[in-house]
Amino acid sequence: MAKLLTEYKDTEHIDSFSLIKSADIRLTKTGKTYLNLIFSDRSGDLPGNLWDATDEQTKSLVPGKIVKLQGVRGAYQDKPQVQITNVRLSEAGEPDNPADFMIHAPIKEEEMNDELSDFILMITNPTWNRLVRKLFSIYHDQFLRYPAAKSNHHAFAGGLAFHSLSIAKLSRNLANQYPQLNSELLIAGALLHDLGKTIELSGPIATQYTISGNLIGHITLIDEQIVLAAHELHFDLQSEEMVLIRHVVLAHHGLLEYGSPVRPAVMEAEVLHQLDEIDAGIQMMTAALDKTDKNTFSDRIFGLDNRRFYKTSE
Amino acid sequence: MAKLLTEYKDTEHIDSFSLIKSADIRLTKTGKTYLNLIFSDRSGDLPGNLWDATDEQTKSLVPGKIVKLQGVRGAYQDKPQVQITNVRLSEAGEPDNPADFMIHAPIKEEEMNDELSDFILMITNPTWNRLVRKLFSIYHDQFLRYPAAKSNHHAFAGGLAFHSLSIAKLSRNLANQYPQLNSELLIAGALLHDLGKTIELSGPIATQYTISGNLIGHITLIDEQIVLAAHELHFDLQSEEMVLIRHVVLAHHGLLEYGSPVRPAVMEAEVLHQLDEIDAGIQMMTAALDKTDKNTFSDRIFGLDNRRFYKTSE
Amino acid sequence: MAKLLTEYKDTEHIDSFSLIKSADIRLTKTGKTYLNLIFSDRSGDLPGNLWDATDEQTKSLVPGKIVKLQGVRGAYQDKPQVQITNVRLSEAGEPDNPADFMIHAPIKEEEMNDELSDFILMITNPTWNRLVRKLFSIYHDQFLRYPAAKSNHHAFAGGLAFHSLSIAKLSRNLANQYPQLNSELLIAGALLHDLGKTIELSGPIATQYTISGNLIGHITLIDEQIVLAAHELHFDLQSEEMVLIRHVVLAHHGLLEYGSPVRPAVMEAEVLHQLDEIDAGIQMMTAALDKTDKNTFSDRIFGLDNRRFYKTSE
Amino acid sequence: MAKLLTEYKDTEHIDSFSLIKSADIRLTKTGKTYLNLIFSDRSGDLPGNLWDATDEQTKSLVPGKIVKLQGVRGAYQDKPQVQITNVRLSEAGEPDNPADFMIHAPIKEEEMNDELSDFILMITNPTWNRLVRKLFSIYHDQFLRYPAAKSNHHAFAGGLAFHSLSIAKLSRNLANQYPQLNSELLIAGALLHDLGKTIELSGPIATQYTISGNLIGHITLIDEQIVLAAHELHFDLQSEEMVLIRHVVLAHHGLLEYGSPVRPAVMEAEVLHQLDEIDAGIQMMTAALDKTDKNTFSDRIFGLDNRRFYKTSE
Amino acid sequence: MAKLLTEYKDTEHIDSFSLIKSADIRLTKTGKTYLNLIFSDRSGDLPGNLWDATDEQTKSLVPGKIVKLQGVRGAYQDKPQVQITNVRLSEAGEPDNPADFMIHAPIKEEEMNDELSDFILMITNPTWNRLVRKLFSIYHDQFLRYPAAKSNHHAFAGGLAFHSLSIAKLSRNLANQYPQLNSELLIAGALLHDLGKTIELSGPIATQYTISGNLIGHITLIDEQIVLAAHELHFDLQSEEMVLIRHVVLAHHGLLEYGSPVRPAVMEAEVLHQLDEIDAGIQMMTAALDKTDKNTFSDRIFGLDNRRFYKTSE
Amino acid sequence: MAKLLTEYKDTEHIDSFSLIKSADIRLTKTGKTYLNLIFSDRSGDLPGNLWDATDEQTKSLVPGKIVKLQGVRGAYQDKPQVQITNVRLSEAGEPDNPADFMIHAPIKEEEMNDELSDFILMITNPTWNRLVRKLFSIYHDQFLRYPAAKSNHHAFAGGLAFHSLSIAKLSRNLANQYPQLNSELLIAGALLHDLGKTIELSGPIATQYTISGNLIGHITLIDEQIVLAAHELHFDLQSEEMVLIRHVVLAHHGLLEYGSPVRPAVMEAEVLHQLDEIDAGIQMMTAALDKTDKNTFSDRIFGLDNRRFYKTSE
């Protein structure tokens, strides 16, 4: 079986199918145009430049296309790249499904779907149960397929569900150890807290921020959806249950500086925020250390104050 | 005509009707109970202690009641107080309307109502016009009677309208000087930006934060009302007009640290935030300097980084 | 059975045995001396003043003594206090063991001892296992009896063990969900991270900071003990295992500003820090909400940025 | 009529007169020298490299010269540049006045001069009037021609006057709405607040900081000039009028962190600071949005916390 | 010889002459007036209340008067105070010079005067020498008698000279160890840096901020005096020597946040700032530790980030 | 005699022996490999690229080798570089000792050794004397040869001793001026404070952080060595002398944010921190100004908040 893009070592010959993730026409210092491409498959990304791109290549080699790529693995300013010797669109009988070349959550979609159903069943409070079911009747598919972010943590297809379900598991375990916590409120909050990302972001491929994502933000966007769902379900927005679920979701960034309009002021809100940080942190460290040699330090991790983490010998 | 409460000088005899703003039963250091009262009229507050309150007095002298107060103006730790010689409920034929004893905006309610109508007429964009009219059909009376804050700036009856209309005037003038500004968006934003305070606060008398005020906050609460109004008017939440008006309102605190979930990213949002700061700042400085002697410094103003301001000689 | 000190309501008569936690001779504004006492039992504290203390009372009513206290529950500046009518030392046949009047961890000492043994057994790495056992051979008893802090979170007898074991449990569960984490390093770190408090603090009663606690601090003090233990066990301080366990303990405050000399740079160090925050946070919120009425806000919690938390209706 | 430099689209042929703003001799990675030029006209800047500059070209193509430029508009790392095909000095009969190629304030110098006179007339307080007239008798011409900054806001010829007069207009309008403000103090402050820039900066072309600009700063430099002018006018530096005008100017950056040696402590000082921020902010946003396509975001604006602003569709 | 005020122990009888530093008429909680007095001598302060002050006492016991004080040393809220039994104005033949009751610099005025002359002689650069001599021809006496601050460090008569000369000594020694430093610039800066305090503060007794002290500040006030002196001496303000000496003085607070309008950008400016911090720090620590028992911690020192310092056993 | 590397001017021919400080194989934008070299001698560094390196060159031109370098001095992006025409390893009879090509402290090693002995003799307190001697019996040679940092201040061979002894001199002088300071504690602290750098850093050539340097840090590493030395000398870790010397060393970074686990809480600790800042600051400014032309500003100095410093004309 063919090697994946990030498995090639320096100077190795690459011969592989991959997805074009981005394609930019650029100018060399001396004024010639060339094509800067980023190839990807489910192992990650590899950039490369096509120095004498024909007009036809410039037109056909666009994001979303599957190509057969040949070249040599090199490095530029310490970053891996491919020196392209040949690149062409995939042909009939060759791989052609972009989804096969995207990074996915480490758990299958069906499995995540089952977990989602199980967690919803654990919410026996009728207000929260109906509210969650109403919202997942609309956003079910996006929840399972969207990334949890444009870059940073869980920035892969299915990342949103993987992250949210992971926090739901942490919530369930924590409520076992600390019975003073309301596990239903925690689980409902875990499932809903980042659901606004499905409106904030453009989708799982070539993910961008939408205009309302930029100008309103995912926290207010999911609050909007909660308000509209409650309106349709004829729930009283001033009831304690509605105020609590909105608060838990609104406050999940923990600090105003991070975009929450209120700081956690209910025990479950504080805890949900901390679990969010733990899961995001572990995912970022794991992803960074996966690319790091033993006994060395990872690249700096933006989402963790630009710290570098040490990979131990075992 | 009787003097107002804050007009009495030290050692002067007080004989005046006033409103009981708060009444707390307290303990002296040696263990005796007494009644700590705050009296107020439209000139401000004056505290005083009733050292040997009877059971009947404890029951009848409660917040909201009008009383006839007699005593001597003194001071305790540099703060004015009244040494009470007599206090009783107002009787038939004497003043009995609490509203007559509250601090009000310096402009009459009818005049503010007229100004509000004028400004709404200036908004010719149909989306914003209908949205604003829809919301004022619900919150018209509260807008004219609520304070703009529990304490801090414009914390008096009618303060919300006085503050909002003042910003609308600044907006109109600014848009004249800088034609690149959209005056309709600015005016609509000025009228709506603090309207969530009518849900966040309990009302004009003995103002407290409501539960949803504390846990959700006035910025998200007015966004909720905008969303529901747009839903009823069948407006598309993704339209540029809806995104802009929501953004301008959401971003009006300027910084995430001050509770806006997004920072201003549209010119009018940045400007509305700055006008809000100017009007609030001038109101706080004016109120503090009104109580300050010439050629001395005011008390520290909490909302202006605890600065003291100098009152000039003319 | 007699009521506990914090169970009395305002104006109720108190007749109770309690421990004198502190006793200060003070001066009234008019220059008379009196005795300011803080009484406590396992429900909490209650202050009171003895206005005409005899010389004999001043000498005998000292911290650590058990007394029979009679008086009336009142309040001074909204804080509960007792108006003392009578107070005398406990006599023969009456309660006389201070330990019976102290607040304790909610789990029994023996149970915590068993949990400690179980967790040590889970550490199969010989370096960490021998190191942990060596240190607990010295600090075993203090670990089970010290508080985790002078004030703030887990400031009660047994708090250190209760807090450390709680984090060990969180560690074990987390390592189940995230197999990329080294559970043995996490558990060893959980058990050792605050053990320096046994040198930093004076003990479980009338807890004070020691001189080395103030000038060196518990983080460096436990590092000192780890270094000396490793020296005696002939471990190489430059070995990865020794560097890792020291790093995890040194970095557990997360930020330099909070007194860690290094920030977490190993995945388990970051996670241990976050679990420490979660357990401390839940304990502080739980303690504050225990004293709060439903549908109201708690007092401000110093260790959580002075936030107040809302107690829900169920 | 010829297009302006910034009006050319990618790949268009440029044939245009322009001013050389800067010219640096540089080295390619492989060690050859080339000439890096920045061309400008009243529409803005365009950089370009002359790869095989002759010695004569290196000597003659220097800042301040007008050249005839021919080439193709391209881009390098997303920034527009020109691929030069030909560049030569302008000849007899062709444009040769650098002032024609500089960006200017949108209002004519004479008009600004009239406005200045009008505002000075509004200052009837004799101390402030004579002080302002004394200073403008010295700095009149520089006031009208200097930029308001080296880069950032109003960094164009005449920017200082344009900015100062704009704030004077805002001051006049604000004092109308809030009669508690002293409009003369505000207007005098508006005219003087940035006048020290005429000493801090080297001039309107190729603007640099002077040594005293760097080591003393424009705020202290204008205070120095005010002190010397007052000295010559035999004004008492301890008079309230002199203290106030100096305070208003010294405090106009609002925060110590921004270089004011005192924070605003007089109402007019606080307001002048806020108007300064509003005018600078609007100018920066306007300049950035002028270069931005509709429905997209501007470049980051350094002077506004690196925020990007959205350009609406109309 | 009579004990000094701060040398009395608790319960000791006081019989002593002292200076009245402040005298306020206050109200007890139950509404009676009393006289709150602060007595002082060269050992420090002692407050006390005169509970039944006659009208004559209220009029005669005013700040600046010397009194014969009798009473008992007690404490109120852990702070020493005197319970007054008798207090009367000093009579003929008794002490009557306020200066004898003020805290002074530990070095005699004449000695400081000699040191000042010596340091001025070390400045051989004619510009700086003449400038310094010009300014000391005006401010010589105030320099020797003013405190260096209202409270905080060197807040005693002669503190300004004591502090400035101490920094001059540090400067001389430092320039010996680091010959790259210009010792004349350092010494001139040391002598002038705080001289503006003679305008900022009202004088050595009952020290207050003046209006120009509050609104302009001592840094700009000494710059003003330097500018005027240079003007009279016909020095060029743009000469390097004038720019340097002004910069060194303007920048001596080190950070903009601390009120310097520019940060140090010349080596001597950076060093002067650091020496200022060292001398102020040592003085504050010394003063605090003088009042602290061995093996305990001092009170918190405001000017050192509210830290407490430990007094060692020898 | 041959010129040193940093003495060559632009376009001059270089013919010189130098040390290879680093050698990296890199890729050009068009995919060819080349060798990026940094040459150095005791005047500083000079980078250069070998565009067509043979395999043999790639293998032999490695860090630590002495080479004969020929080429032309040029510049790339304003930074000096050499355009290499020839480079070969030094041969028999030519220079071959790397130490001759390293930057050294401006004082000879023997002289620093003598100073060290003198300072140790000044410490007459037996605990501190024996402790310091014990530690220098182990780290004597590294102390004299290590740099004080990887980059930043005193980043040259012998920098650690040069910096530590310089602070010891400042300490001795300061204790003369302020007799309240314990000079022995200050000197012992000065000698030990950075000694942990000998464990934190890899050595004087091609200096890197060690693993324990990164994960434990030099402050805790020297504390570890002090603890072990005290253990061997049978000193009581709870004695005041041991607590003080550890505190002074632990607190020398002054702020928690800078990595000290405790803030200075003893006078000598505060002073040692300030002297450390002064010596480091002067060294950084001196080094930067050595490379700066008169009447211009230095490059930004990272360790001094990125400030640039002005070099005066004499």
Automatic annotation (TrEMBL), chains A, B, C, D, E, F:
Lineage, uppermost ranks: Bacteria, Bacillati, Bacillota, Bacilli, Lactobacillales
Keywords on record: Hydrolase
Domain of life of the source: Bacteria
Domain HD: 160-281
Name of the protein in its database record: 3'-5' exoribonuclease YhaM family protein
